[in-house]
Structure formats: structure tokens, C-alpha cells
Amino acid sequence: TNTPTALIMIFGATGDLAHRKLFPSLYRLYKKGRLTDRFAVLGVARRSLTLEEFQESVRKSIVEFTGEQDGLDEFASHFYYQSHDVTDSSSYIQLRELANKLDEHYGLEGNRLFYLAMAPEFFGTIGDHLKLDGLTDTAGYKRLVIEKPFGHDFESAQELNNRLRQAFSEEEIYRIDHYLGKAMVQNIQVIRFANALFEPLWNNRYISNIQVTSSETLGVEERGRYYEKSGALRDMVQNHMLQMVALLAMEPPIKLNTEEIRSEKVRALRSLRPMSQDEVNQYFVRGQYDEGTINGESVPGYRTEPMVDPESNTETYVAGKLVIDNFRWAGVPFYIRTGKRLGSKSTKIVVQFKDIPMNLYYNTDEKLTPNLLVIHIQPEEGVTLHLNAKKSGSGMKTTPVRLSTASKSIDRMNTPEAYEKLLYDSMRGDATNFTHWDEVALSWKFVDAISAVWENTKETTFPNYAAGSDGPQVADQLLEKDGFEWWPVE
Ligand code: NAD
User: Any idea what the Cα angle at residue 346 is, between residues 432 and 213, rounded to 5°?
Assistant: First the structure.
């Protein structure tokens, strides 16, 4: 059905994610009629709050992050709160009673969504208690929506997964990778599989290389404690970057359903060549930001950020070359790069096509630029195709031209926030844009081989890029070795 009914239990309901993303997304769904009046949200967090205080915090978040307040009182009246330390086993019984009451009051048919918007060290404990104390014992569906990071490496991820699987089946676990909720990430497969112009060219005969960039201008902010143990490789590559690579590299699914799409993504991840120690050193580089200037403002270096070791070896930037060992992609490098405190905020994919066999226009003053397909993911959304055309005027000179649908998504109401789509999908039971355990496992194994090398070799060049720059020089050299260069992020 299109208007799902459920009790949405948010663990961590006073946190940043709940206020910035989850409440506003639920409100937008409500306004679009995608949530009927048959829903309730039960917020759980440590702080003691009255019902009025909690509902007031919900209203404030909606006004602040959506700029709207239409029907807000009615919406907020669906929100309930329980102050509860998730490590305290006695309070789950109370939670169950409140859940049952809300279920009855709103006619929720026993459908339950448990959303874990809390630090990952609590995921296992919460999962155990939900089952032990009967919260998962319900007439309708029960689903667990779980935030990143899913583990710290393969081993810890597997341990967490085994534990959660005591209470939820794989089909009931919705692992969030919010990149998969982004409109343009979902558009990758449409561009590939709905266009005669691209589908036949999507292989090593016509594509020379693919570049995936995700750059941030923000630094580590208040997350130093977490980030010191994570770094860009675990925080960005294991999940978001590899997910985009999988969508670009996968074979066409035989059907557009969850199982088929995910199994093609799994196959793509299985084709990633595991990195030996030598390959890690050759194919992956890391960076750490120094002080610098971003948008006219001077910002500190990573090592002087709060909760960061003054001699930290943690990378805030990663660039790498991925090798996909299958017939379609043999010989085509997939380059990825991601980092904090770079000159601009941008996520995009550049597909560079091979040069045509013979350049008739080579004697003109401009060199032919290769054809590029750029998929802009954020903040711009859309696609740009770079072609060559005749330069106006006499003679046969060429000039690059662009066909572009890209635009800044100014009207936020019209481009649904990733979290809005993902919440809606999880309520409808569509797990396509969530990561299956097999994807998580393969991604960790790939990334673990790189961490293993990096953790044993102190990077003596850190810090090696200025805040506000394009990243470390080693990232440029990585492509130069192959005769390529990064296409600008602009
Ligand atoms: P936060 O620190 O702002 O909020 C944590 C919440 O957990 C608070 O509501 C707090 O009261 C509650 N909490 C902590 N200990 C508790 C306990 N023992 N018992 C009960 N409640 C307790 O964190 P956040 O930024 O909202 O992030 C939550 C999760 O979402 C994390 O896994 C994070 O990695 C992930 N995440 C956050 C963002 C974001 O934009 N904030 C983005 C992606 C992923």
C-alpha cells in the first residue's frame, strides 16, 4: 500500500540525526499524504523530557529544517517519548507497554519500525532487548533500521550482524547508506539501462576510466573521537564510495526488484580485485588536512581539532584505483577520491570515454577533449554530456560543448531528502536502497586489506594538503601514472 501504518520507534530521539533528518522527513511524508493518521512515533533517549517538551522539540526541528508549520500541531501530537537508558534492561518492559498502547490507540496493526539513531556501540544491546523483552513479538511486521557505521571492520561487522540476526531476519534489517537515498544515485541505473546511447558503450571497449569524487568542505567538527578511530577509508569508502562503484559497474539486473538488483551489486563487489600489500601502496593514497582557508575563512589543521591526537596518523582523504576483474571492465580503472576540508563540496561521477580512433582535427589549435558523461549527485543534480562540435567561424576547428540538465536543487520540497525516501521505503518494505549483509561483508573485506597496510605504516608526510585545496599531490600522481587526470570538480 502507499500509505503505510506503523509505530516508528526512534532510539536517539534527542540527537542530531533525529532533529536534522528524521523528524523533517516524517513531516514531509505526512504532508504529502504518505503517512496516514495511523502512525505514531515513540522517541527514546536518555534525557528526561516531558511529553510537551519532546513534542515542542519536534515542532522546532520541523520549523527550523523545513521552514513550514502547516498542520504541525496535529503532526506533533503523534509523537511520544520515553526517557530510557538503553543499557538498562528494566525499562524495556515499560517501552513495550507504551508501544502496545499506541498500537491499539492508532490502529497500527502491530507494525513496528525500530530506528537506531544512536552510537553504534548500543546497536547490539538494543537488538537483544527488543527480542528478549517482547518488543519484536508483534502481529504486524517488525523491521530494524540501522545507521552507519555497521562495524569497524569485517570481523566486528560480522559479530554485530550475527547478534542482530538473533532478533531480526536479514529481510527485516534495513542498513542505511543515505547515499542510496539520493535521487541521482538512484538515477545511475536509469541512465545506464534506459538509454540506447549509453548501455551499448558501458564497457571496456568504449570507456577509458571512471572517476567518483565526494568532497566536503567541512572538517571533522565535533566528531574527532569517532573519526580518529575511523578515518576517511572506513567512514566514506567502505560504504558510500563502494556503493556508487557497485551501481556503476554492475551487470543489468534481469528484473528491477530488490533481490535482483542487490545480487548484481554483490557480484560487482565480488569482482573487485583484493589488494595485496604492494597494490595498496601503488593504488591507494591518503591525505590529512593542514590549516588553510575555505571561503575566505581560515580553519585549523586536523591535528589541532578537538579530541584529535596532535600526531594523528588518521587519514581525512583517500584516493584509490579500483580494479574490477571481469569481462566488462578488464583494463578500465575506477578511480575514487573523498576527503574533508577540500575547496568545494561536491559529489559526482565522471565517465570518460575513449578517444576516437583517429583525430581528423588534430592540427587545429585545440586538442580534442574526450567525451565525458558527468553525473552530478550533490549539491548539483543532473547529468552533463561533454561533446565536441564545430567552432563557429570559418575553418574546421572544434570546440567542446555541453548538454546539461544539471541544476542546483534549490527547491528542497521538490527534491525529497534522501532520508525521506529511505524512511518511506522502509515502511513500505522496499529494501532495494539499503545494503544487504553480503555487500557490507565484501566491502569491509576489501577495505580491511587497505587499513591493514596503513595502520602498520606511519604516514610521515601528514599533514599533506592545505584546507581549501584540491587534496594531496599524491592523488594527482596516482592518475598521472596511468596517463589520466582528475576532471575538475568545478
Ligand atoms: P547524537 O550524539 O546527536 O545523538 C545520540 C542520541 O542517543 C541522543 O538522543 C542520546 O540521548 C541518545 N543516547 C546516547 N546514549 C544513550 C543511552 N545509553 N540510552 C539512551 N539513549 C542514549 O548522534 P547522531 O549524530 O544523531 O547520530 C546517531 C547515529 O546516526 C550514529 O550512528 C551516527 O553515526 C549516525 N549518523 C548520523 C548522521 C548525522 O547527520 N548526525 C549522519 C549519518 C549517520
Answer: 70
For ligand 1, atom 41, name the residue with the nearest CA: 17
- ipTM exceeding the 0.85 mark: yes
pLDDT at 477: 98
Instruction: Give yes or no for residue 393 having a pLDDT over 70.
Output: yes
Among 431, 442, 440, 433, which Cα is nearest to 144's? 431
Ligand 1 close to Cβ of residue 272 (< 6 A): no
- % of the chain with per-residue pLDDT over 90: 89
d(CA 25, CA 414): 13
Compute the distance between CA of residue 280 and CA of residue 298 in angstroms, rounded to an integer.
33
Average pLDDT, the chain: 94
Q: How far is the CA of 15 from the centre of ligand 1 (A)?
A: 5
Pocket flag, ligand 1, residue 15 (CB < 6 Å): yes
What spacing in Å lies between the alpha carbon of 225 and ligand 1's midpoint? Answer: 14
Q: Is any ligand 1 atom within 6 A of the Cβ of residue 47?
A: yes
Distance (Å, whole) CA 200 – CA 418: 30
Neighbours of 304 (CB within 10 A): 12
> In angstroms, what is the span from residue 128 Cα to ligand 1's centroid?
19
> What is the per-residue burial (b if ≥16 Cβ within 10 Å, else e) of 102-112?
bbeebebbbbb
pLDDT digits (tens, 9 = 90+) for 260-317: 999 999 999 999 999 999 999 999 999 999 999 999 999 999 999 999 999 999 999 9
Residues with catalytic function: 240
Q: Which atom of ligand 1 is nearest to the CA of 120?
A: 32
pLDDT tier at 413, thresholds 50, 70, 90: very low
Compute, in angstroms, the gap from residue 201 CA to the centroid of ligand 1. Answer: 44
Place of cell 508483534: 138
Selection from 344, 317, 303, 376 nearest residue 469 by Cα: 344
What is the residue with the minimal CA distance to atom 2 of ligand 1? Answer: 15
Q: Is the CB of 225 under 6 A from ligand 1?
A: no
